[in-house]
Specification:
2 domains; about 20% strand; Alpha/beta knot; alpha/beta; about 250 residues; seven-stranded parallel beta sheet
Amino acid sequence: MKRIVAGPRAVIEAVRADAGRVNVVYVLREGRRALREVAEEVAKRGVRLEDREASELDALAGGLKHQGVLAITGEYPYVEIEQILAAASDRPLLVALDQITDPHNFGAIVRSAVAFGADGIVTLKNRAAPVTPVVVRASAGATEHARVARVTNLARTLDVLIQHGMDAIGLDAEGDVDIDDLPDAPGGRVLVVGAEGAGLRRLVRERCTHLARIPHPGPVASLNASVAASVALFCAWRRREREREVG
């Protein structure tokens, strides 16, 4: 099944990540000069580039904001959790999403995960947003650089990761430890993010090695899922770098 990647940044990232998966890139006929960076990137990687009228792009986009650029690619290449672990660096850093259904939150979390060097993202096959064109755009194309695994049972998957030596860190406003005060994790960490409002489900919470809170001095009661994940990813990336330096 083909999918649509919309918007200049998302299309550029898709082409850079794996040009072989991109069948064709369509650009607005009268906007070729403004979209020169896209045209140059596409040409450099040997992907077919075709001009289209605005009405044609609008019809293909199906309501997505495309800014004059669309790419037609193959199905999203999900991976297995074993592939993420096999390709991971020392002290792996993963993000696990517990029923994140909003595609904008999902895309924003993927963008932060790629920015802070996470080795993979784990999400659910059911009751969770898949990688859709909206997610790709919300991630600014970061989905095309990410390893995303879809699992049936997140609690069991956390068991597997813990057996692999990783610490499972559940994000919780009422957690028992500040995110910066977590113990060292020589086997790596998986940050577990719950759904907006509902938080982590009971069985998922019970699997977590620690429940970590993100302290914030302002009057807002809590952070939304994507912001909390971004802060936690930054803290985890910084902590991993320090642990590596120490040895």
